[in-house]
Design goal:
331 residues; 6-stranded mixed beta barrel; 40% helix
Length: 331
């Protein structure tokens, strides 16, 4: 009986390892383009060894009890019970079977809940397309220091150099908030409405300082109006693009296109020219519970000169590639 338990445990362990290896490969393929360093996910040998040792000890413990009981059984009584087609089970054995079934049900339910949670997370749309997108940050460099004009030109040169890398189709600078990574909020008030007495009383919105290619890189849906263009530079009037959550909060009964918003913190007034879809800035499962949902986009070159000194300290870049994003990193 003890040998039987060990053989069953060994067979179950080998089968479980095969299934785990198969599922691991499936999950890696599924997450390859969605999770950084997905290729480094693997079955850990230490964990596997611990699991094997635990299974072996459990098999011995659960198998030795009935084995010892069988050595004390009355052979003649057992044969008589066999003739009657009946078997008696010790109370401990019945309790053991109940415990095993209960634990199996708990494990099955936990696995089902995990699969359901993963399935729901995979079905959640983040509001942008992360496939073949690479995002990284850099510190300031001499190329983007100096006068405000030099800073703007330095960033534009960096964008042009990144776009010239083979495999890169679009590049944008990303200042302020970074999707699912960092947030930057700015108070605002709508022109034509009473100005709050203090900035702390103003509504807040996440702001993104970007380049015109940002919409194509992230593939955020344009719902109305237009997005930022290359003509929206430091020599043209400031324009802003808002998301649908901004519209729902600030303009529930009005058309926001053509309206102006004031950004007291940096002293800018910008005209709303477009509306885009909302992105889940705070994460797939926690964005709905965040306090700030509204989002607004600006061409980074339209930030005032005094802001350029802060911008020169460094920023993030985001680019879209024609293949695997990390394949262009060596360039």
């Amino acid at each position: 009986m003890l040998t039987e338990c060990l053989l069953l445990a060994l067979s179950g362990g080998v089968l479980a390892l095969a299934v785990a290896k198969l599922l691991d490969g499936i999950f890696i393929i599924k997450l390859a383009n969605q999770l950084a360093r997905a290729d480094q996910i693997h079955l850990d040998p230490v964990v596997l060894a611990f699991t094997a040792a635990t299974s072996l000890v459990a098999s011995v413990l659960f198998g030795i009890v009935p084995a010892l009981q069988s050595t004390r059984a009355d052979l003649s009584e057992t044969l008589k019970e066999g003739e009657r087609g009946q078997t008696t089970r010790h109370g401990f054995q019945r309790a053991l079977i109940c415990a095993e079934v209960a634990l199996a049900l708990v494990l099955t339910a936990s696995a089902g809940l995990m699969i359901r949670t993963m399935s729901r997370l995979w079905c959640v749309k983040p509001g942008f397309d992360p496939q073949q997108v690479l995002m990284f940050a850099i510190a300031g460099s001499p190329a983007v220091h100096g006068t405000p004009s030099a800073v703007r030109n330095g960033y534009q040169q960096t964008i042009d150099q990144l776009r010239s890398i083979p495999g890169v189709s679009a590049v944008s600078v990303l200042l302020g908030a970074v999707p699912m990574s960092g947030d930057s909020e700015m108070p605002y008030w709508v022109e034509g409405r009473p100005k709050p007495a203090e900035q702390s009383q103003m509504d807040l919105a996440l702001f993104y300082g970007i380049s015109p290619d940002y919409l194509n890189i992230m593939r955020i849906p344009l719902l109305r109006g237009r997005f930022i263009t290359s003509q929206d530079d430091e020599n043209s009037p400031c324009v802003a693009v808002i998301d649908e959550e901004f519209q729902r909060k600030a303009f529930p009964t009005q058309d926001p296109i053509g309206q102006r918003i004031n950004l007291d913190l940096i002293g800018m007034q910008c005209e709303i020219v477009g509306i885009v879809g909302h992105i889940k800035q705070w994460g797939l499962d926690s964005d709905a519970t965040a306090k700030v949902h509204s989002q607004m986009y600006f061409e980074f070159r339209q930030f005032l000169d005094r802001v350029m000194d802060v911008v020169s300290g460094g920023s993030a870049f985001v680019l879209r590639t024609g293949g695997a994003p990390y394949s262009v990193w060596r360039h």
